[in-house]
Write a structure and sequence with these properties.
With 673 residues, the chain is of the alpha+beta class. The strands form seven sheets. A five-stranded mixed sheet has the order 2-11-10-3-9. A five-stranded antiparallel sheet has the order 14-13-12-16-17. Bound molecules: 2-(butylsulfanyl)adenosine.
Length: 673
């Protein structure tokens, strides 16, 4: 039984945390310092750990942690999620207004509610008595997919509604988007980890929401904007404008760029202004949505087959252009990935000149049937590398040639292989200069070792002249090596040698990131550095050690193991250390890691007297330690209860600390005993 006072305390904490989440994530105006927030959060976590029955589905601690799914369940929509008719210019907006007024028999101007059209993934969130009970994708409008566990990880999706006047039942509709900055960062991480980048923020958002493993969604920077409702029971609203305000009050993010205006002139003006300022939005918008404001009038107008009569989407001119493919090159990246790249007649796309565009992979080229000599549509979305959308076969002359992926690397001549089940072919050359150049550029890049002055042209020369055959060779370069190179004056040679010298003491996280291990982006590198504290420990980490790091899944773990298991990589690192490279351990452990058992690994064997295994595990974890099932050299303590198994024996053989139950309790702060 949970004492009443604690139950009330948990409720109170939940309410406070929901409110502060809202201030922080939705309004971007926190009221309390982060430490204060962390304190509230930790208190709730501890309470729920001691009394798991306090863990309600709307608890802010419950955003992550659902096991991966096999497949999504179908999620029927009580009220269909319709689409919108489009207007592409002012005349079509005016026709819409005329149509609506004719239908209503209205003489005077109508009031419209205008907002941006978010370019993301449409979803529906169902709340019963203020608690989120389901999150679904739009699907075909009638049945979507149940992505509740994923949407729960999005910070701007309220798990519980704020205020005392929450509706008894509500389906909130809106869009999940990935802000452009966050999208660029994610793509840098993807590329650094040797993974294919997302084509645009919309794909990234959609791909993140439709993950079977919600821990992946949780790491993706997503936001939810509300713009409407399906069912709404137990709340009175008369206009769309009022609805948006109520949604905001219940804790949702609603576009601040909305406007209510009487008559179509104001609508036209809103659309024009929004389009002109399109690039100032932190997320992608692809138009404006105009809605008849009065909900009574909306009802009278009703819907047609797939779209309501009371709304219209004004679509912006696309950031696309038509040009010709002069050739298709196979470009070799740092991990050997060979990507087909279209070389284009330069063309301006939304103000930026584009002369190359990615074709992603050979399957994509075949699927889109893009040939050398074709006229094609190219587009820019977010800030991605421009891409070829489609060919214009009607403009073919017959001289076009299909692209054939070369069998050998165009740079080093090694075989190009495509592992079973993978979309991306790779150059197998161990010393492929193209890979080496890309690896060095990554190693030296600003977010990695930050070696100022080591630009593309210089890297080309260093590799082509055989001065650098391996990243470690950078640390052996002297001014005398550099001065003979093109466009290198004495002063810049000196500066570069100094910059390389400074890089010797970069912190471990940067160093790990710089190594360019597949699947290890900046965030993962930081997590690894924090967990292991030294390069040696990371290099010797077992799969199990790696899996214990937050955010490290089987794919990352095996990639890290494979990297450090490769003799050439170990040799390269050895040579760097020999040349005086000293990656610095993380300067200041994070607050949570200063917990008394941080970094300590426990194994339990036998039956404990004063608590169950589960409780013991919860306490160790609450104090920053971890519990594993098997004993290894890296185990810090083996706690032995009654009738222990072979683990106690193994611990003694390996020289691991063996503790009795009372000795274990001694290690814990008094309130945890
Ligand atoms: S209202 C009855 N408002 O556009 C339709 N939709 O083509 C109600 N969208 O799938 C939709 N921003 O995902 C509405 N501010 C906004 C929107 C918006 C984006 C999307 C929505 C829908 C599509 C319709």
């Amino acid at each position: 039984m949970v004492p009443d006072s604690l139950r009330r305390r948990a409720e109170d904490l939940r309410r406070q945390i929901h409110y502060h989440n809202y201030r922080y994530y939705v309004l971007d105006r926190p009221e309390i310092p982060d430490e204060e927030y962390d304190r509230l959060f930790r208190e709730l976590v501890e309470l729920e750990e001691h009394y798991p029955e306090l863990r309600s589905p709307d608890s802010p601690t419950q955003r992550v942690g659902a096991p991966p799914l096999e497949a999504f369940e179908p999620a029927p929509h009580a009220v269909p999620m319709l689409s919108l008719e489009n207007a592409t210019d002012e005349a079509e907006l005016r026709e819409f207004d005329a149509r609506v007024r004719r239908f209503l028999g209205a003489d005077g101007p109508l009031v419209y509610s205008c907002e941006p059209k978010f370019d993301g993934l449409a979803v529906e969130l169902t709340y019963r008595d203020g608690v989120l009970v389901r999150g679904a994708t739009r699907g075909d409008g009638t049945v979507g997919e149940d992505v509740t566990v994923n949407l729960r990880t999005v910070r701007t999706v309220p798990l519980g509604l704020l205020g005392n006047d929450v509706p008894s039942l509500m389906d909130v509709r809106g869009e999940v988007v990935m802000p452009v900055e966050a999208f660029r960062r994610l793509n840098r991480e993807q590329e650094a980890a040797g993974l294919a980048p997302f084509a645009n923020p919309r794909n990234a958002a959609a791909g993140s929401v439709r993950q079977l493993d919600s821990s992946i969604t949780a790491r993706r920077p997503l936001e939810f904007f509300a713009y409407g409702v399906g069912r709404l029971e137990g709340a009175e609203v008369r206009t769309h404008w009022e609805l948006l305000e109520r949604l905001e009050g219940w804790g949702f993010r609603v576009s601040e760029h909305r406007q209510r205006t009487r008559g179509i002139d104001g609508v036209v003006e809103f659309c024009r202004r929004t389009e002109a300022r399109r690039d100032e939005f932190p997320y992608e918008i692809d138009g404006c949505v105009i809605k008849v404001d009065n909900l009574g009038l909306q009802d009278r107008l009703g819907t047609k087959a797939r779209a309501p009569r009371w709304a219209i989407a004004y679509k912006f001119a696309p950031r696309q252009a038509v040009t010709r493919v002069k050739g298709i090159e196979a470009s070799v990246g740092r991990t050997g990935a060979v990507t087909p790249v279209a070389v284009l007649e330069p063309v301006s796309v939304g103000g930026v000149t584009v002369s190359r565009a990615t074709l992603h992979n050979p399957d994509e080229v075949a699927r889109k049937d893009i040939r050398i000599g074709d006229w094609v549509v190219v587009q820019r979305a977010g800030d991605v590398i421009p891409e070829v959308v489609r060919a214009l076969p009607e403009r073919r002359t017959g001289d076009e040639r299909p692209f054939v992926m070369p069998e050998r690397c165009p740079v080093c001549g090694a075989r190009i292989e495509r592992p079973e089940g993978e979309a991306i072919p790779r150059c197998t050359g161990l010393s492929c200069p193209a890979q080496l150049k890309a690896r060095i550029r990554h190693f030296a890049s600003r977010r990695a070792m930050d070696i100022d002055g080591l630009g593309t042209k210089l890297v080309e020369q260093l590799v082509d002249r055989g001065l650098v055959r391996d990243v470690a060779d950078l640390f052996r370069l002297s001014e005398a090596d550099l001065v003979p190179l093109e466009r290198v004056a004495e002063k810049s040679a000196r500066n570069l040698v100094e910059a390389i010298d400074r890089a010797r003491k970069r912190d471990l996280a940067r160093f790990v990131y710089a190594l360019g291990i597949r699947h290890v982006g900046e965030a993962t590198a930081r997590a690894l550095a924090e967990r292991f504290g030294s390069l040696e420990r990371l290099m010797d980490a077992t799969e199990e050690d790696l899996l214990a790091v937050p955010d490290v899944g089987p794919e990352v773990a095996s990639s890290v193991r494979a990297f450090f298991g490769e003799p050439a990589n170990r040799e390269s690192i050895r040579r760097m250390l020999e040349a005086g490279v000293r990656p610095m351990p993380p300067a200041r452990p994070k607050a949570e890691q200063q917990a008394p058992l941080t970094g300590k690994t426990f194994v339990f064997t036998g039956t404990l007297e004063s608590m169950t295994r589960e409780e013991a595990k919860a306490r160790v974890e609450a104090l920053g330690g971890k519990v594993t099932s098997s004993v290894s050299r890296r185990t810090d303590y083996v706690v032995v209860g009654a009738d222990p198994g072979s683990k106690a024996e193994k611990a003694r053989t390996l020289g691991v600390n063996v503790l009795s139950e009372p000795e274990f309790l001694e290690l814990l702060p008094s309130k945890f005993r």
